[in-house]
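Q: what sequence does this backbone want?
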């Protein structure tokens, strides 16, 4: 029994390290993308006739999207820290999930604005997905909030 628990513990740590590495890479890529965007957007816009002369609005929308994504990833990194500590039912995670949900809502709004500038089917699908992610995060935040309440009540009774 003890050996099986040890194996599960190692698997959990390996999974956490892999997930943490992936989230760290995503965070770094987001930072790099935001930094190179002022150069990349005008270059890319040359290949989309509908976006000629719209460098500033497109750049603004994409910079905001990049910043919001980076913010959400940063909050996810905070949640992952509590998971590895095996103490994930804390008020900080509820707050982080609510912040991430606001980020997803803002991303949906940014994509609607982006769709006004240049509408594609992908923009419609992405907007729908971010609205779904917004609702999902709100629900998970509420579940975590209840779990934190139960945990605090349980801690007080012992």
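A:
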């Amino acid at each position: 029994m003890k050996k099986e628990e040890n194996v599960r513990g190692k698997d959990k740590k390996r999974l956490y390290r892999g997930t943490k590495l992936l989230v760290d890479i995503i965070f770094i890529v987001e930072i790099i993308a935001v930094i190179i965007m002022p150069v990349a957007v005008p270059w890319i816009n040359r290949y989309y006739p509908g976006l000629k002369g719209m460098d500033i609005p497109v750049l603004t929308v994409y910079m905001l999207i990049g910043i919001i994504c980076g913010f959400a990833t940063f909050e996810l990194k905070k949640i992952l820290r509590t998971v590895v500590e095996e103490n994930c039912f804390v008020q900080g995670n509820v707050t982080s999930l609510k912040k991430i949900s606001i980020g997803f809502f803002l991303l949906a709004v940014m994509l609607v604005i982006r769709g006004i500038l240049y509408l594609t089917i992908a923009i419609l699908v992405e907007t729908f997905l971010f609205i779904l992610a917004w609702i999902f995060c709100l629900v998970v935040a509420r579940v975590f909030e209840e779990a934190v309440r139960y945990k605090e009540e349980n801690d007080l009774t012992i």
